[in-house]
Amino acid sequence: MITRQFGSEVRWMLRRPRTLIGLFGLVLVPIIISFGIWTASDEGEGGGGPPGLGAILQGNGMVVPIFTLFLSLNLLLPLVASIWAADGLAGEAQHGTLRGLLVAPVSRVRLLFVKLFGLTAMSLFAVTLMAVVGIISGTAFLGNDGMMTLSGTTLSTAEGLVRIGLFILLVTFQMVAIGAVALAVSSATEHPLVVQAATMTTIIVFQVLGQFTSLDWLHPFLITTGFPGLIDVMRDPIPWEQIGDSTLLAGCYLLIGTGLAAIRLVTKDS
Amino acid sequence: MTTSTSAPVTAPSKTAVAARTKGLRKEYGSTVAVDRVDLELPEGAVLGMLGPNGSGKTTTIRMLLGLVRPTQGEIELLGRPLPEGAEQALPHVGALVEGPGFHPFLSGRENLVRCAAFEPLLPRKEIKQAVEDAIERVGLAQAAHRRYRGYSLGMKQRLGLAAALLVPRKLVVLDEPTNGLDPAGTREIRKIIGDLHAAGSTVLVSSHLLSEVEATCTHVAVLHRGTVVAQGELTELLQAGGSALQVITPDVETALSALRQAKISARPLGDGLRVELAGTSAPQVIETLVQGGARVFEATRWKTGLEELFARLTEAEEAERGMSAVDTLDGGRR
Amino acid sequence: MNKRKVTLAAAAAGVITGVAGLSLAAMPAGAGQPPSLPDVSAESLVQQVLTSKPGAFGGTVEVDNKLGLPSLAEIPQLADGKHSARIWTDGNGKFRAALPNGQSEQTIVNDGKTTWSWNSADNEVTKAEHKADQPKPDEQKAQSVDPAAAAKQVVGLTKEFSDITVDGTARVANRAAYELVLTPKASEKTLIREVRIAVDAELKMPLRVAVLTNGASEPAGTVGFKEINVGAQDPKLFEFTPPAQAKVTTPEAKEEKGRDRRPELGVEQALQGKDPQIFGTGWDTVVGARIPAEAMTQVPAEAQGLVDKFTKKVSGNWGSGQVFTTKVATILIADDGRVVAGAVPEQVLFDTIGQVK
After folding, report:
1. Is residue B314 part of a domain?
2. What ipTM did this prediction achieve?
């Protein structure tokens, strides 16, 4: 029964026009990045690519998916996660379909898990799609001689794919954590836009707060603090500490978001 | 004021009940939406829930379906206490609450498939057939492939009904099912309710359209200002609502004074009088009139309509609250 | 308890766990119970430290720095704050260091014949083939974050001028260690109150060095392993193949280019290049040098601005100049090019500068 509900949820999400538009937008990101780096290479020395990971993109197509996801994690992927979370509960409440599900009946806890599953499945799908398009466009525009890491070593394509797979999972988990918190907001309102606005405002405010060194006591609490550490996937050998910390941090957000959403759903009048 | 309406009419049923509430109360913040609602829905009955907008019909229905937690009181649905037993009881309940709710970007059929996926009693293999049957049943076959976004109000209503009827139900709850339907659509809904009744399902229909309830219901519950002011079998209620005699006479003044002397309640109406038969009988009235010198052209037994009953029930409430307007209206009868 | 209450309790427990997890993550890791180890005399511990042969190990080092140094683009690990670096060594001179800097990374690999220095920020490799007695600047940089090397140096230089004690035990990078404390003797005129070195009980290898200055309870600087795994390391770590897309240069070529680009390097080179003059011994040793006059005048305006920002103008019977103060060291640059520096208060420098030739 639950698999059938999971399936229905994912099919429903995929049928939404805005999901398709969103996915299309996400897919453009790696293509634009590959193209941008490729044109920069024609301008000769230096290239003037973006700093950090961007510096090693030249001729290193396998890094495009990682770079794309790393960039998107700051704004684009949280936005997409918040849209899905917003439509999941607030949107259903707005259309009056939440009532229909509850009298079917679907227990409220199960409903939350169905929504969380949909969010996870779609996040994984979107992130994987971006990565795959990134690999293809990166290879096409920038070439592929294996994957050069930040540590200056070159991994074989197979090893590189393993790194990309790992990064996909890590990024998806961050997205799901953000989505879970957005679901908690979503369970408390009938207006999907409120959910998106609240989530995105939080993410942006967190990133701004992260810039102030005077607030460094606050930083370990902000989920956005964990984002930059994920780049350690591109070091060789991988230092696991920051990756572990970021994932734990996201795990805490996932627990809080899911817990609050469950409390709200169980006590809510529909 | 007639005695029959001063207290809620309750017909205690000895048969099994599909749903029952006791002392139901719901507060939203400081507003009391529903209070002291004792409702009984006998198995196999078609209960019409009447009441003006804001009388607490929808809140009561939402509590019956476990959507809203009552502040106080007990609910029993298909033999299970709510909200604890919701998961056992609700699969057997089909509902159309507060208008149809569907996703605008999906077609009618896709919407039903999504609803069906969450129906615990519907095996996966039967989903397709169940959806087609439901579409056929509410007469949406032509429009099933179209997006819900483009549906007319009536089509939306039908789709909502189809969702409620995806699985054979023991109880079907319909909140204002004929909203937005044309007369033909209304007739179809009546037919569907009749079919459900014939098949042994219990039906709860809420409506503010009295004729609809009168035409389809076996039982009636009247809600007013968040509480049940009357409930029972439709026929009993109408009888208890008292009968009257319509008398056609040119000598209205004479007739009225004669009746007043005999302490019979009457008021002028149209070409003659309307005489209440409470505490008296038709022959006695006519005798009083003839002896009083009034010419009686015609006397017909007045059957109380639901509309009148409803008006009286709700007006009675108003009167109790000391509303002067109602007093003047009723003045002629005194 | 009914189902609803159970659900609510479980959900609340989830929220509480999440919040507790966040708070735990935000709290600095506790030191834990200090291990109990057999007593050891300070002298024998010092001997063991100095004679211990470095073995193969790999680990993560955390530098916690409150020295008050301006941040230098060259060595971000030395700027104030917490930084980490990863080092691996095979115990026979080959090593690898990875110095992450934000989203880029500098990697230094000594494969026995060549020292490779890779910087992902500019996609560039510097290749220095080993020649006899050639200083290897990048290698020194890499070793400056190795607590073991740093501690040995300190102990070797100052043991005669210090009171050395063993002050209990500590757990560093999950290994049991003795806390060796070097306190400058009362006659030493230094800014430093004590240096605490955590020495691995088994390997006698320093695992952490903390420098405490006068009047501060928190260490001004700590370099220590956060994680260490002792034993043979993957030999592949000590190999380096320049990535296909990277530019490969030699240190000579880079220096040429660097000289044009960064005139302030002139001062640095002048300090390093001339034989420095040493005054005094022990903790209050002062290093002196004279920057050629042309180098002084070459300092461009913006570099001068930088210098002014971090220094204080001073003058005395020795002349006038600028003094740069950190918690552990003071540098005095006289206007005529004389430079003295040491882990001493500025008065000691004023007294010493007259001796610079």
Report:
1. no
2. 0.86
